[in-house]
Amino acid sequence: MASLSTRKNGSALDMEGDILPNGIKAEAFPRASTTETPELDYISSTSESDCPQISLSKRGGTMSKAKAKRARKEHQRSTSGQQASSSSLRPAQDVMNRIRHDPDLKVSEYVVGYKDRHVGIMEKAVENWSVEGVEEEEFIPLHRIEYFRRTTDDHIVWHREQRIDEIFRSGVSGES
Does the pTM exceed 0.90? Predict the structure, then answer.
């Protein structure tokens, strides 16, 4: 049985048991108020018992619907754990730093494949790659990096379009 409450303007409000547009069942309860008419909060509850309760105040006091939706999505990402992070590819800057600073990797064995605006794909040794103190004509933005290749066996260890990452095991190569 759904409870019937009133809004400040006196109109009836029957939300308990109703399904909100996002498919979540609404449960209404009165909240203590300094005004004469009670205000209502709506708690979204999902089928997952570990999902946090997100309060949506009718008067905008606690959380807007948009913020509640973002909070639910963030919770879903955090509960899916490794699955969400493995599908996203680590950026080229992270791979570059790992190759340069990881003692198990020899920086002299890696080259960077990057898009040149006029020529196409070019390669440059990782140890010669620099973004600081470079003349404007020689500057290559990091978003133009297409792949990292190990020169000892000509093996691509990171590729942007194919979503290969054997350095961090992210992207497609991280999924099993």
Answer: no
